[in-house]
Specification:
This protein is α/β, with parallel strands linked by helices and 274 residues long. The protein has one domain: Phosphoenolpyruvate-binding domains (TIM Barrel, Alpha-Beta Barrel), CATH 3.20.20. It has twelve helices and eight strands. The chain is globular, with a radius of gyration of 19 Å. The chain starts with a helix and ends with a helix.
């Protein structure tokens, strides 16, 4: 099924895969997309950010206090928006990936995908046979089976797959890694990557900078969009896009809450002379 047919199949029905197909088309056209981290597992936080107009939200179940019930409830908060929910699962584990996809997640980011074999396994976990080995049972994803045939027909094409490179050993096989069929982008994890070089969080060290630059350069040559895996500032965006970083993380719920609280408190203390 083509993307156009897939969009038609979802129109008027469940419809959730239409927005991720639109996201993929935007990236294939060479455009950048803007997203934010979602760490707070209150559905109101997800609803608030999803209605702000981001292209996607990256739901961090690797480090956040998420269980399956809160994830599913938060996904419901995306209903009626064009914001794509992408989940960073705790590990490159086919069971957790299957559960997230069956709830209606439209993109998977898996941490610590270290080599070509693990990258291929990630793709297999996100695809139904014969392209993969995803177990069958897309309950909420298919509108509780009401749109089952439509969902199955387009799911393999639609689900967004993004392995995260967080090991220096991956750089040695980067071209083969980027050539794995079925990946839509790659993310970098600068902090954990630096831990594998023996230079933990020394982001300006030449070894760490060269590793990240190499990943970005080879990905751009291969036509694979890159996500830095960390937030970037407005002044950095044009340069990042020119280099091939087209999946931009610009803020997080935690950052917005902490910064907003501090700014409000400081402004009011200044106003009353404290």
């Amino acid at each position: 099924m083509s993307e156009a047919e897939g969009l038609q199949a979802t129109k008027g029905g469940w419809g959730s895969l239409g927005r991720v197909l639109a996201l993929k088309r935007k990236l294939k056209a060479g455009k950048a997309i803007c997203g934010a981290w979602l760490s707070l597992n209150d559905p109101a936080a997800g609803e608030l950010l999803a209605r702000a107009g981001f292209d996607f939200l990256l739901i961090d179940t690797e480090h956040g206090a998420w269980d399956l019930v809160t994830l599913q409830t938060t996904l419901m908060a995306f209903n009626g928006t064009d914001t794509v929910p992408i989940v960073r699962v705790p590990w490159n584990d086919h069971v957790r990936i299957k559960q997230a996809l069956d709830m209606g997640v439209e993109g998977i980011m898996a941490p610590m995908v270290r080599n070509v074999a693990e990258c291929r396994e990630l793709v297999r976990s996100c695809r139904y046979p014969p392209q993969g080995a995803r177990g069958f049972g897309p309950r909420r994803a298919s509108n509780y089976y009401r749109n089952l045939d439509d969902y199955v027909a387009i799911a393999n094409e639609a689900i967004f797959v993004m392995p995260q490179i967080e090991d220096i050993a991956t750089v040695a096989v980067i071209d083969d890694y980027l050539a794995v069929p079925g990946i839509d982008a790659v993310a970098i994890g600068p902090n954990d990557l630096s831990g594998t070089t023996g230079l933990f969080r020394q982001h300006q060290h030449p070894t760490n900078k060269v590793a990240i630059d190499t990943i970005i350069k080879h990905a751009q040559a291969a036509g694979v969009p890159v996500c830095l895996g960390i937030n970037s500032k407005p002044a950095e965006q044009r340069d990042l896009i020119a280099r091939g970083v087209r999946i931009l993380l610009i803020t997080s719920d935690l950052e917005l809450l902490a910064a907003g609280a501090r700014q409000s408190l400081d402004a009011n203390r200044q106003a009353i002379g404290e």
